[in-house]
Amino acid sequence: MNEPFPAVPASSDVCAVTAARTHMKLALSVEEAARAAGICTGSLYKQWANGGGPKRKKLGRRTVVLLSDLEIWLRGLADAA
Fold this sequence. Notes:
Layout (H helix, E strand, L loop, with lengths): L13 H9 L4 E3 H8 L3 H9 L7 E3 L2 E5 H14 L1
Antiparallel strand pairs: 1-3, 2-3
């Protein structure tokens, strides 16, 4: 199964880091976004129902969360704590 966050090489080799980032997904399914945030999908849906959570986009029948929106939401949670 593809993980949304591949391991980034520990070296300072810019080419290796760039190569690792090019394989990173930019849009995650609801399940992938919840897993990346460390919560269950039900908690993510509850966040949305209560007016919170990361921004989401509809692509046809699919709901996706942009990786950048997930990161912004998680940083906001960390700042509020």
